[in-house]
Structure formats: C-alpha cells, structure tokens
Amino acid sequence: MYRAGLRDLRITYVYKPKWYFRKAEEALKSVVESYIGLFGSRRFLAAFSSPIFFDALAASAYLDELGGGATSIIAVTLKNHLRPEAGLMVLGGKQPISYRVPEELERAGELLGLSEREVERLKYSSRMVAKVDSAAIQDGFKLYIHVMLVSAEAEWSVVQQAIRPMTNIVRRYHWASMRVRSFIEEPHSGIVSEERRRVVLDMTSRRSRESRKACVEAVNQDLRGLKRFSTSLPSGQLTLLDFGEAAERSGDEALTVPRIKWSTITRIHRMAPRDFEELLSIQGVGPATVRFLAYACMSLYGVKPSLSDPATLFNEVRCSREDRRYLEELAEAIDSSSLPEEKKRRSLSRVSALLSQAEPS
Predict the structure, then answer these.
(1) CA atoms of 287 and 317, how far apart (whole Å)
(2) CB proximity list for 8: less than 8 A, separation 6 or greater
(3) 211 is in which domain, residue-wise?
(4) Number of structural domains, the chain?
(5) Is the model more confident about 1 or about 324?
(6) Edge to edge, what strands does the sheet with 142-151 contain?
(7) 3-class DSSP state for residue 128?
(8) In the chain, how many H helices and how many E strands?
(9) Model confidence, pTM
C-alpha cells in the first residue's frame, strides 16, 4: 500500500525561507538532468505522468513538506531549467500562466522542430485535457494548475491540479499521450486525492458509455425532448437527489441541474457532433452544458452516467511494476547526480522510504 509521498494534498500556508526553495530548486535541477541523461527524455516524460513518481520527485527535493504546494514549485523549476537541447520543454503553470499554453506551444514547436500539424494537435490535446477535468468530470474541484511537458517527438504529459472552493484540499490529474487511447473514456494515468466525494458526475467512466452516446443522439435528433426537459425544470434547484438511485445519497454534495441558454443547444445541434469527444470540444460547451445533457438523458431515456468519484485515495494507490522501476531509476539518478554527498543521502533516504512502503499491485 502506498502511504508515503504527498499524502496530505492540501495547500499548506507555512513560511519557508528563501534558502529552502533554492535548495529544492538545486536538487530538482540536478536530479532531473541526471535522470534524463541516464534514461532519456521520453522515459522522463512517461515517468512524470505517474502519481507515485511525481511524489517521489517532490520528496527527492524535500518538497513533500509543502503538500499540494509542491506541484507549482516543480512546474516553475522544470520550466526554468529544462532546455530544448534535452528534447523536452515545459509549458503552462498556475493560472493565469496556464492560459498561455497555446502561445507557448508555437514557440516550443519552433525550438523542438515540430511541424505545424503536430503543434495544432498538441494545442488540441492541452485543451481537451482541461475540458475533461473541468467539464466531463465534475467533482467540485476547480482547476488552477496546468503543466504540459512536450517532447521533440510531439509526445506529451500533463499534470493538472485543482482545489475545492472554501477548503485547502487539492487533487491531481495525471495524463500521458502514450497511454491515452481516448480523451473521453478513462484516459488518466492517475487521479489522486486525500478525499473521495460521494457524488461526482464522471462522464469518462466506462459506466457512462451509454450516457455519452445518449447525449450526442439527443442534441442531434431529439431537440423536442431536450426542450421539454428544459421547460419542465422547477423554479427551485433540481439536484441529483431527485433522480432514481441518486436519491439514496444525501448531503450538500448533490450537483444541481443547471438552466442553460437554449441557443447553446441549438448551436451544438447545428454543428452535429459525431461523438462525445467532438461535442465536448465545441467552444462554449462547459460543465453546465454537460451536466444538463447528462441529466436530461437520465430523465428522458433512463440512461444513467457514473456518479462515483474516479479519484484514488492515497491509502489505496498501488505501485505497479512500472512505478517501481520509475522509483528505482530515480534513486539511480540521484546517486549519479551532481548533488553533494550529504544531499544525495537525504534524497535517497526519502525515495527509499517510498520504495519500501509501496506495495505492488
């Protein structure tokens, strides 16, 4: 069982002196350069998408003390120190910098020698990753970090982090292009959190497959039914608790059924999306539109999406053979790095703790 690393995924507002961050930056820079030198940029790209490796990387730089705050430090450090010569570039970061990824991809394409078609595909991937984690998965967390690693082979890895309003609790979403077969069906290499929400609309679940199909068919072929559902919504807030099996779940986590502009539905109808990914990719289709369509299909056709939280709690994360190899490689990279011996020993002890506590899946 995986119990080490950034177990406390919260933003911790604790004072740290400047030397603490300089030390962390020095360690990260040295360890990452060593890892890429030993195992290559493609291997680092893949490892970065592993929640366990990400935690180990933070621990190797003493950032595990910062909880969820470590993510932005890692993003900034890698962005400042990874050069195109290494075959990788880091884009994005915290909002509002994360919104500049399309512009940064233009520059990255020039420096990495990517074609215009590859750059456009990377822009699409960045946009869809953000759309999925904000609209297709509605877990009550709001995205505020989007970090994208891009290689000279046009492969990518993304780590996004979101925070639940009125709390300091965050969760991370991990993606890797080499593992994504579909943007809209269980595409993540990991979603990690310290809490599980009782009610989450997860349109990426396999169990939501029929719901996704119904949403597309409804906007293409059943405007009358959608209009009937829209006009039948009560003046008060209708929630998931008003729908079948969801009535067994109580509390303030119920998601409301939104009222949306009918012009949004007619515009989607005119664009005639062929599948749910195409529907989701339409500009202006966000959480409210997806939730409206999912609930409309529940009401009109009895087709239910998954309402279970897809996040994995830290005490449930299993260390795969690949994860274990990543940790072993990280330990080797630390040992071969330019860090002073004392700092190597400290970093190695933290990564070794992860290795010893990571139970294989």
Answers:
(1) 28
(2) 67, 68, 194
(3) 206-301
(4) 2
(5) 324
(6) 88-94, 142-151, 156-163, 170-176, 190-193, 312-313
(7) helix
(8) 13, 8
(9) 0.90
